[in-house]
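User: Here's a structure from my thesis project, written as structure tokens. My advisor, Dr. K., wants to see whether a designed sequence matches the one we expressed. Can you design one independently, without my sequence as a hint?
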């Protein structure tokens, strides 16, 4: 019998989102992921100075503005013909700023957004905000271990603050850093800044090694069934990211569930619009030729997210994609960490495609980035330049493809008469939380929800755990509908 569960809103994430799913005999048969907020940055930027994009697009997100600063700078560099002229110091400082943002975001996600789904914080400290209201009935950690995890929740707040301070050493401030600009950066490296950055980084590395990763492994062992729940589409994609003097730190690639690798080709990206509140005339185009034309009266539409696809296929983005891509491309550090993790959990690589597989990948990535940042600091050269002079061309096109904490991020721009004629952004969550495409293929989050067993429709904790594992950058409401569209329950979720 079809039932409806409505969770509205789903908190502890960013932005505005809804998910609709058909539940039949306790199993999710169909799911819909909807972005319910129209941003319109693509329209706001039209007719502006191309350099404005570097300032304005950071306002897309307050948690990961640094990724938009990076993507827009790379996009403008490309359009201005600067890509091969960026000084090595600038590449390293951009990477350090971006890395600091990754660390604060990953720590925030696990401890403050996701861990309360698994840790009985209210049982440890009492029924106080922000630990209530909550779902009840599936908290498996108790006693001293539970109390320790709650203490780590508090400790993580301080560590995250230090990540933001570290970012500000070279970024000037956070959020919306002022140092990452077209042509390079505005902050020069000095011995004082390097030392200031490093002592914070070392404390953060200690936390990642001795608290964050062990906590994720402990939760995974306590909820080992979630290493087989929320598989998703079984195919991952990464653009690659962190541009260094020696090349990209994370390797681009498209990898299937059986770990077969294919090269990433940006021209294979398209955006479908069949179920999005936009005019269909732009459907199926590469974002370099895309358009953003809202159409609110579109009958079959259910999301302000478009449906990005790669070669017409659904793919998942994020830390899991980056770890798997580097793993299959024989990055020694990644292979060592992933193999050690799989051994501690007693599972194979197939378990990575799961709720707790995503959390584990995020924790390992935090270590990989933090350790690498210590090396990047050592090769900064205080006496060398950090920026190259530039001016706006009369015409040009550019693309800035990079990585954000939640996955691959792309900015595309066309310049005409020294003004922005076209600007398009595809965020990681647009990929992961996309609606069905022109072929009626569900998006990655939609597929991850499908097939999930809901033990108690009055307490559907399985669904929020799956959605939050993707770290969606949306404030969400989740709607579960029966075939007749009749609601049978409404729940507040924290």
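Assistant: Designed independently from the structure alone:
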């Amino acid at each position: 019998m079809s039932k409806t569960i409505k969770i509205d809103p789903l908190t502890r994430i960013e932005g505005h989102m809804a998910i609709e799913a058909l539940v039949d005999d306790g199993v999710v048969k169909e799911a819909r992921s909807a972005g319910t907020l129209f941003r319109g940055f693509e329209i706001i930027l039209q007719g502006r100075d191309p350099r404005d994009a570097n300032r304005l697009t950071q306002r897309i997100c307050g948690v990961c503005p640094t990724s938009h600063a990076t993507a827009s700078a790379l996009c403008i560099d490309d359009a201005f013909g600067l890509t091969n002229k960026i000084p090595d110091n600038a590449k390293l400082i951009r990477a350090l700023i971006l890395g600091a943002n990754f660390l604060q975001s990953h720590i925030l996600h696990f401890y403050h957004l996701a861990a309360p789904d698994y840790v009985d914080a209210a049982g440890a400290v009492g029924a106080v905000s922000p630990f209530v209201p909550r779902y009840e009935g599936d908290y498996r950690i108790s006693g001293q271990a539970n109390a320790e995890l709650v203490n780590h929740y508090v400790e993580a707040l301080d560590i995250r603050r230090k990540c933001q301070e570290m970012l500000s050493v070279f970024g000037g401030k956070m959020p919306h850093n002022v140092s990452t600009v077209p042509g390079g950066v505005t902050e020069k490296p000095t011995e004082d800044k390097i030392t200031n950055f490093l002592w914070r980084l070392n404390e953060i590395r200690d936390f990642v090694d001795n608290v964050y990763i062990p906590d994720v492994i402990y939760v995974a062992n306590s909820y080992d069934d979630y290493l087989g729940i929320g598989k998703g589409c079984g195919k991952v994609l990464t653009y690659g990211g962190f541009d260094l003097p020696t090349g990209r730190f994370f390797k681009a690639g498209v990898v299937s569930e059986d770990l077969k690798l294919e090269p990433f080709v940006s021209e294979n990206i398209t955006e479908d619009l069949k179920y999005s509140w936009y005019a269909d005339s732009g459907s199926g185009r590469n974002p370099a030729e895309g358009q953003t034309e809202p159409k609110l009266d579109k009958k079959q539409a259910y999301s302000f997210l478009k449906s990005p696809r790669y070669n017409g296929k659904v793919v998942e983005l994020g830390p899991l994609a980056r770890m798997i891509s580097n793993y299959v491309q024989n990055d020694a550090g990644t292979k060592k960490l992933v193999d050690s993790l799989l051994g501690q959990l007693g599972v194979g690589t197939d378990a990575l495609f799961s709720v707790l597989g995503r959390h584990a990948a995020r924790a390992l990535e935090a270590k990989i980035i933090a350790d690498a940042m210590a090396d990047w600091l050592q090769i900064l050269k205080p006496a060398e330049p950090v920026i190259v002079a530039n001016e706006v061309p009369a015409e040009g096109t550019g693309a800035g493809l990079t990585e954000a904490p939640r996955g691959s991020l792309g900015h595309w721009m066309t310049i005409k008469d020294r003004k922005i004629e076209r600007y398009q952004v595809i965020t990681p969550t647009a990929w992961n939380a996309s609606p069905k495409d022109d072929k009626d293929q569900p998006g990655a989050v939609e597929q991850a929800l499908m097939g999930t067993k809901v033990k108690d429709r009055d307490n559907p904790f399985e669904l929020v755990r799956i959605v939050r594992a993707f770290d969606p950058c949306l404030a969400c409401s989740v709607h579960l509908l029966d075939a007749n569209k009749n609601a049978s329950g409404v729940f507040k979720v924290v």
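When you compare it with your expressed construct, this may help: The longest strand covers residues 395-404.
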